[in-house]
Amino acid sequence: MQYGTYHELLIEEFDRRKAANAAYSLRAYARDLAMSAPRLSQVLSKKQGLSIEAAEEVATRLKLPDNKRQWFCHSVGAQHARSFKERANYKEKILKYQSEAKVFSEIQLEYFKVIADWWHFGILELTYHQEFRYDLHWISEVLDITPQQTEEAIKRMLSLDLLKEENGTLKDVFKFLATPSDIPSSALKKFNSQLMKRALLALYEQDVHHREIASNIFSIDKASIPVIKEKLRAFRRELEHEASKAPVKNAVYCLGMQFFELTKDKT
Hints:
single chain; mainly alpha; 54% helix
């Protein structure tokens, strides 16, 4: 998991809800978790802990998927279980999660705004290409962008420590870098709209054997949206992690998923 403790998950979820609704308050969050506001405040500030039973209730109310639910409850147990032996057992389970985890670093939104054009991430991935050359014209031709865009992007990423110069070439500092999630942002909209346009070009210009573009239309219960989104994210990250193991890399690909409502909500 990307969190150090269960407190971070609770805080992130509160921030996500507040970003979606500016009027959303800590009192409302406490209500949704079946907890008093003073109690929740004490938990978030680490002045009080949760019992395993309370953790299970909170996980249910947050509609956490199974893997995140288990991690959340184990994190609570590792800190607040009654006996030393119980806490040790939970900590062992947490270590197992960490050793098996696919480590993704989520870039902060204020930094992402600076590198919201898709080719920044294209350049990062291109550094793994077996024929990569630290040459502005080569990079711009491979990614079909201008040399000026290439030069400016590299300068930005060097200044943000996302790239580093080493032995006459460029190296990606973070092996896996994720964009922010569930936060309304014009930068994120710009990033995704650019890639959707690239996908449309690929639909008409790339050989069908070199691409996979398909859509599924199905009915859902809106209450299941958080679980569906978590599974989509887990799939994307697992696939990227698996692809990273390839001994030879000779192309940069983009995986795009579109999951949105086709019907108009008349409620």
